[in-house]
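Deliverable D4.2, example record:
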Amino acid sequence: MDERRRTTADPPALATVRERLDELVSPIDRTETLPVSTAVDRTVAAPVVARRPVPGFDQAARDGVAVRAADTEGTTDRDPVALSLAERPDDGTAAGIEPGDGIRVDAGRPLPEGADAVVALEAVDAPGTGLSTVADTELTVTAPVEPSEGVRAAGADVAVDEAVLVAGDRVGPSDPALCTAVGRTRLEVCQRPTVGIVPVGGGLTGGDPDPGEVVETDGTTVAEFVERAGGKVVLRDPVESESYALRPAVERDLTKDLIVTVGGTGAGESDRIVGVVERLGEVLVDGVAADPAGTTALSVVRERPVLSVPGDPVAAFVATTRLVAPAVARLAGREPPEPRTLGAELGAPVESERGIESVHPVALEGDRRGTAVPTARPVADEPLSTLARADGWVAVEPERGRLAAGETVSVERWEASI
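Output generated by the structure prediction step:
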């Protein structure tokens, strides 16, 4: 288990920390207006009301013959009704019909004036419909139709003043087409909450490393979670684990809606982020009952929440999926997505410390629905490759302590978490 700084003898569970974090964040009230084509994945700030109906006119719902329903009353295949075949304009526009007329129409085309139903081609004998036995100017109908049968009325899909999206909805990939159809080409959406991400640690670099330097990767992972949760990321260059560097790094991002520091939360001499934040504000949580991610901290500085997550890749992954991403989603005015899980048979035993929630990366064998096999432990030995090899994780509740090989477990899939 990773080392954990504890300000109390009984650190809170991750779920408890999330509840405290929920009390600190609420949907931001800043909005902006965007072209609908660029609004996908944004949160709607105000109802989107149709300015025009869909469809915009009464139209044929099927290929057939437009008629007056009253002209087909009592019709049977043994006693068909004969109608005059009206001429269809070459340009496909809707022509009118008189009583006793019928006119060929294609699905989706305007219903001719005077018609109130469309007879299916199967119930019509007319020129151009197959083996016709009638004159070029006549048609026969072998089945009656009711008014509106075979017709899609104007506004049947969307009526004028109907809300196609409401506040809090997330704009999906198909919504721009619908909004354009109803005359709404610009949408008022919530601004994305801003999140400052500050990687912490000596010897870290965001570019090509010099001898003795390490490429910073955890901040990039956190940034991906934040973006997918609806946030706007400002990913800072790594800062040294010294007070003179940490303090201005935190203060610089106090204009953001949320600050996430990555690394510097352990018990080592260079792990100073919690102490620095404590001098700037109030530390609410300093250590959680979780492995990994046990050194996670939650603070408030000048009314801004600050989440400090561990620098170990797996620990940062856990803290970000359980705390950071839900907080960003809440700020963005959307519900955090529920994790996608599947049942699997554990292929090897898992040992955990009682009293804390532990998370164990696992790989899924075969069709990825069969046996869930834990990757090598401890994960801190090769953390990046562990993340790359694993398909998800198994969470062990604090009261369990150990899972035996062969047990049926619930695997939380990582690709669904981000």
